[in-house]
Design a protein that fits this description.
Elements: H1 5-11, E1 16-21, H2 26-33, E2 39-43, H3 51-61, E3 67-71, H4 77-85, E4 90-93, H5 99-109, H6 123-128, H7 132-139, E5 141-146, H8 149-153, H9 155-159, E6 166-169, H10 171-177, H11 189-204, E7 208-212, H12 216-225, E8 229-234, H13 235-240, H14 243-250
Parallel strand pairs: 1-2, 1-8, 2-3, 3-4, 4-5, 5-6, 6-7, 7-8
Helix pairs in contact: 2-3, 4-5
């Protein structure tokens, strides 16, 4: 089976970079995959992307060795299994708030006896290899998002869920849930304290850690702090930055 390069990067002691995709375009996905990111996340929750688009985007990304991740719309088995069968090498599940929810998420990502994922990998075999069924449980990443006060209260139970590989901090929803500002590069002392707590508990449980950021400087700070996967930019963010060119042109 094609290896999941994120595991190799982490084994080498390096934080992996990630770019977030919101635009339903195989061409955009291919362009960004060729930029050299370690991984790319196709966002089916808040992006404008449907499963048909995601399939074509996964195909475009596979022209590189960039690891394809998919954030599903919700912790729901059908969309999780469909994304995996399309070739996602990691699933990000939003709003995981309890051990029970995390167990359901992990189970949907794993074939028996480790879970209840239905057999029908289709494109996943084309991407991953003919031995996909035998090795998928050890290769595909399960990533639970921690982004509410409820998740903070159940953090240790979530992080010790068998089969969970990583947790991803959603700083905007976490801030909002805590009664603070919803923003990606958190500087609010209370939210930063909560993020540090998530990092500590997850690391103590032997889980990898990820966080969403929206610029290089903050992402570097999070990598230095100990996060294993840092989102640095998004396709929409890159396009919005073009406004600087307009201002520059207008003098």
């Amino acid at each position: 089976m094609r290896p999941n390069r994120l595991w190799d990067i982490w084994a080498a002691g390096r934080a992996a970079s990630n770019c977030w995709l919101n635009i339903p375009s195989p061409y955009v996905a291919e362009l960004i995959a060729h930029q050299g990111w370690d991984s790319i996340t196709i966002d089916l929750q808040h992006g404008m992307i449907g499963m048909k688009d995601a399939y074509a985007m996964l195909t475009a990304i596979s022209t590189t060795d960039c690891v394809p991740l998919v954030r599903v719309p919700w912790n729901e088995p059908a969309s999780i299994m469909q994304a995996l069968d399309a070739g996602a090498y990691g699933i990000i599940a939003p709003m995981i708030n309890s051990r029970e929810e995390c167990e359901a998420f992990v189970g949907a990502c794993r074939y028996a006896p480790d879970g209840y994922r239905s057999v029908g990998p289709n494109r996943a075999v084309l991407y991953g290899g003919s031995d996909y069924l035998d090795k998928a449980n050890r290769t595909v990443l399960t990533i639970a998002m921690i982004e509410t006060v409820e998740a903070l209260a159940a953090l240790e139970e979530i992080c010790t869920t068998p089969g969970l590989d990583a947790v991803l901090v959603g700083p905007s929803d976490l801030g909002l849930s805590m009664g603070r500002e919803a923003k990606s590069n958190q500087t609010d002392p209370e939210v930063v304290k909560a993020i540090d707590h998530i990092l500590e508990i997850a690391k103590g449980a032997g889980r990898k850690t990820a966080i969403f950021n929206s610029n290089v400087d903050y992402a570097k700070q999070m990598a230095a702090k100990g996060f294993d996967l840092v989102t640095v930019a998004s396709d929409t963010g890159m396009i919005k930055s073009g406004a600087g060119l307009v201002r520059e042109m207008r003098g």
